[in-house]
């Protein structure tokens, strides 16, 4: 069954609508936002990539060793790129994220599939356009040009300028036109999804809004696709999938906890760490979406 017709998509739509109502009518202070974002990241966001090792071609210990060497080698090579050419590494992160976020929404292996590309751009560009000053600070921090101590959490009401409105409309219409061309039969569902996500970004701060979208609209769908792939390809139970997810999830969470304990929190470094585990994960998932 296509993701767009699945129960999960309907559940996500309902959850997004409920979150919009809650955030609009009740005050979500910084502490509440941090707690909710932390819970989502620890329960869904970080674990959703913890089972990449299950899909290796050689299902034995030697295959596991080869997989880990390649996986960690990609991370190390990307870390070197961040160290020597951070601007290029940032651009790679953008491109990879556009592809990965869009691909999970359409379950399409074609890297030139326009609805997929445009949805990935929408998910990442909308919060940046709406909170440009804060987003540029994060990007500068990632390439070593920003000072985290200068970061100011902006709680002021959002006021849109003409260029922001025009950019949102242009990207939104381009995306819907691509849906009309490629998946006309699902136009209404994709349009409602776009409206709900856009409203969420309009009402929420940059980081909190993006983390919720990342967990709700990407990590959940990615996990569902992995479960279906794993149970059908290897004739396993869903319980086996989640049991296998536990060790690497705990390792990832423990590693991040140790980072926060021994180093002062730095928003740029945190996103770099995210990018390092994202690149090999995207390569694994691209193969899964290809069947």
From TrEMBL:
It holds the Pfam family BCD. It is found in: Cell membrane. One of its GO terms (biological process) is carotene catabolic process. It catalyses: all-trans-beta-carotene + O2 = 2 all-trans-retinal. One of its GO terms (molecular function) is carotenoid dioxygenase activity. InterPro entries: Blh_diox. Keywords: Cell membrane, Dioxygenase, Iron, Membrane, Metal-binding, Oxidoreductase, Transmembrane, Transmembrane helix. GO terms for cellular component: plasma membrane. The chain crosses the membrane at residues 68-96, 116-139, 160-182, 194-220, 241-262, 268-289. It is a multi-pass membrane protein. It comes from the Bacteria. Its EC number is 1.13.11.63. Its main location: membrane. Its cofactor is Fe(2+). Coiled coil: none annotated. Belongs to the Brp/Blh beta-carotene diooxygenase family. Catalyzes the cleavage of beta-carotene at its central double bond (15,15') to yield two molecules of all-trans-retinal. HAMAP family: Beta_carotene_diox. This is Probable beta-carotene 15,15'-dioxygenase. The lineage of its organism: Bacteria, Pseudomonadati, Bacteroidota, Sphingobacteriia, Sphingobacteriales.
